[in-house]
Design brief:
There is one protein chain. The chain is an alpha/beta fold. Helices cover 48% and strands 11% of the residues. The protein has four domains: 15-97 and 196-280, 3-Layer(aba) Sandwich (Rossmann fold), CATH 3.40.50; 114-185, Arc Repressor Mutant, subunit A (Orthogonal Bundle), CATH 1.10.10; 288-381 and 537-626, Rossmann fold; 384-529, PCRA, domain 4, CATH 1.10.486.10. Strands 9, 10, 11, 12, 13, 14 and 15 form a seven-stranded mixed β-sheet that branches. Strands 3-2-6-7-1-8 form a six-stranded parallel β-sheet, sandwiched between helices. A two-stranded parallel ribbon has the order 4-5. The structure holds adenosine-5'-triphosphate (ATP) and magnesium ion (MG). Adenosine-5'-triphosphate binds next to helix 2.
């Protein structure tokens, strides 16, 4: 028998992982179940390539969250040391944002564009659609869904003209004006980041050549949640060499609402000619009981590709399913259980994650944990940058960076109140528009009277100087410059804020976050892409939505709210959407390494009323032999 030696970087991989790890050139696709070492394969493959002499600068790795990106870089770092720092590990949005910072002027944008978040979008829509016929959030969603399908405002208008409802026409009209507004403010939304990058690579061959020469090897984890638009982007980035490694588990596709489509997996072979398909079959994460229980649930889905999955791990304990009277009983049951599990030192708080379908379900759990003084961290809770004090300070920095940013201007001029009312604002907007000016340069010439005039003068003096100094200061000093410059703490005191201490604490945290950046544009970008969460408490219980749990693993998983109407959500009213909910439940179950606990309150609070809600159908679909007391 021939003896082949395996490179030490990948020597720990199993027989399924070894082949794709050594497949370097040409497209490959790995389709495999949860915990089978897909992410591990990416890390090992990248490390192996670096060891083989491939320049890490030429490697581009996509993950789904910033957290996952950091973890991936760290894991490569463990294997190959500081060379890992040269890797580009990023989300699609953040990569596109950096691409556009370099090349946006090819598309008629300035490179100092602002990234508008949902609040900025809604506020912009409200100004366009003043009649308020439809909810701004609905309109935003419809626009986003059109952008997902690559429908331009022009196309939307044409389509609505011939076959659309009154609402379609309305939305198409708003969409057109919205795009125009954004461009005038040198702003883009999240969808634009991807669409404009695609447009850039499609229409500017020299840019594409440059980008393709830089990034020669692509990796994409969690491809099952990429939309067809994301895959267009990957295809363009992959260039002629198509050295692209795609990883997916179709059973874990949970982002249909953001345009993910399992059927895209079928089309991969057509997109990437010569695509080689691999599969991994051994689960290293969970006990046999958890693997089998999860498989029995997902087997109820019709839309699923055949995959083998076995584990050599121990059989483990049966799942627990706990029925309680209501949500507060569910919460107090869980907090008592946590005490028991952590009492003798076998498990620590950080070994436990509590998962739920919707954000608001964490409330009763949080109350119970607070009462027992059990430390917890809400992963991906209210994003840090959405807090008022953070938005106030950031609006100044945004405006100094991009003086066309109307949303930032409107916020900054009102903090502190400067006597500039709606009329004066209208006047300033009209001036900026008619003279093709911006929200700083225009101010001395806007010819206002009385209080507004004084307020605007004072604001101008501050902004003028601040803008000049913006690039001479480190991000941390920029934050302090604004906080002190506008006497923000005094302002909070004057407003007699009840949670003053928390707000000041958040400002400190903002300074800390800023201190980790060298450049103001990187700092702005990361805050607006919603990736900086407040500090994680060490050794605490993890609370998160099922969506946020993707890719993670914990010794103990507690899934709450196993009711009809919660999971599956009451919104799921088609076969396809029920299957998506089932996948979501499956993702939750497969996060568990050793212990899996499912709970359900009989009565659920709904719009202030307590209501009986049936047990989730997914509990009944799990083979009862794996649930304690059911077999
Ligand atoms: P998910 O679908 O949930 O993202 P995954 O397929 O990406 O899961 P990983 O997170 O890569 O799985 O691996 C799951 C666990 O198995 C991790 O703890 C990892 O360290 C371990 N693991 C992966 N491959 C091996 C291996 N060859 N030998 C031992 N342990 C492994
Ligand atoms: Mg993974």
């Amino acid at each position: 028998m021939a003896i082949t030696t395996v490179h030490p970087t990948i020597a720990h991989l199993n027989k399924f992982q070894l082949e794709p790890a050594q497949h370097i050139n040409g497209p490959l696709f790995v389709l495999a179940g949860p915990g089978s070492g897909k992410t591990n394969l990416i890390v090992s493959r990248a490390s192996y390539m670096i060891e083989k002499g491939i320049d890490p600068l030429s490697m581009l790795m996509f993950t789904f969250t910033k957290k996952a990106a950091n973890e991936m870089r760290e894991r490569v770092h463990l294997k190959v040391g500081p060379r890992a720092n040269d890797l580009t590990v990023s989300t699609y949005h953040s990569f596109c944002s950096r691409l556009l910072r370099k090349y946006a002027n090819y598309l008629g944008y300035e490179t100092n564009f602002t990234i508008y978040d949902t609040d900025d979008q809604i506020s912009t829509i409200k100004k366009i659609a003043k009649d308020g016929m439809f909810k701004p959030r609905d309109v935003i969603n419809e626009i986003s869904s059109m952008k997902n399908k690559n429908i331009t405002p022009q196309k939307a208008l044409e389509k609505a003209q011939y076959e659309g409802t009154a609402k379609d026409k309305y939305v198409a009209e708003v969409y057109k004006q919205y795009q125009k507004e954004l461009k005038e403010q040198n702003a883009v939304d999240f969808d634009d980041l991807i669409l404009l990058s695609i447009l850039l690579l499609r229409t500017q061959p020299e840019v594409k050549r440059e980008v393709n020469q830089r990034y020669r090897y692509l990796f994409c984890d969690e491809t099952q949640d990429s939309s067809s638009r994301d895959l267009d982007l990957i295809k363009l980035l992959a260039g002629d060499d198509m050295n692209v490694c795609l990883i997916a588990d179709d059973d874990q596709s949970i982002y249909a609402f953001r345009g993910a489509d399992i059927n895209e997996i079928l089309k991969l072979k057509a997109r990437f000619k010569g695509l080689k398909v691999y599969t991994l079959q051994q689960n290293y994460r969970s006990t046999q009981t958890i693997v089998n229980a999860a498989r029995s649930l997902i087997s109820h889905n019709e839309q699923s590709y055949e995959k083998e999955l076995f584990t050599e791990n121990k059989v483990g304990e049966q799942l627990m399913f706990i029925d309680t009277q209501n949500q507060s009983q569910e919460a107090s049951y869980i907090s008592t259980l946590i005490e028991a599990l952590t009492q003798n030192g076998t498990y620590q708080y950080k070994d436990i994650a509590i998962l739920y379908r919707m954000n608001h379900l964490s409330r009763s759990i949080e109350e119970a944990l607070l009462q027992k003084q059990v430390p917890y961290t809400v992963v991906g809770g209210l994003p840090f940058y959405k807090r008022r004090e953070i938005k106030d300070i950031m609006s100044y920095i945004r405006l100094a960076y991009n003086p066309l940013d109307r949303e930032a201007f409107e916020r900054a001029i009102g903090v502190p109140k400067r006597g500039v009312g709606d009329k004066s604002l209208e006047h300033i907007h009209a001036y900026v528009r008619n003279r093709a000016s911006n929200y700083i340069d225009a101010l001395p010439n806007t010819d206002l009277r009385g209080k507004a005039k004084k307020g605007v003068e004072q604001f101008y003096t501050f902004m003028e100087k601040f803008r000049e100094e913006l690039y001479t200061m480190a991000p941390k000093d920029i934050v302090l410059y604004v906080v002190h410059g506008i006497k923000y703490i005094d302002l909070l005191v004057e407003m007699d804020e009840p949670d003053m201490e928390t707000r000041v604490g958040n400002l400190d945290e903002l300074v800390n976050i800023a201190a980790s950046y060298d450049q103001v544009d990187e700092f702005l970008e990361n805050l607006s892409l919603n990736v900086e969460d407040a500090e994680q408490i060490e050794n605490s219980i993890n609370l998160m939505t099922l969506h946020a749990s993707k890719g993670l693993e914990f010794p103990i998983i507690i899934m709450i709210g196993n009711n009809e109407g919660i999971i599956p959500s009451w919104r799921a009213d088609t076969q396809a959407s029920i299957e998506e909910e089932r996948r979501l439940h499956y993702v939750g179950m497969t996060r568990a390494k050793e212990i899996l606990i499912l709970t359900r309150p009989k009565m659920v609070m709904n719009q202030g009323r307590s209501q009986y809600q049936e047990e989730s159908r997914f509990i009944g679909e799990i083979d009862p032999q794996y649930i304690r007391g059911r077999s």
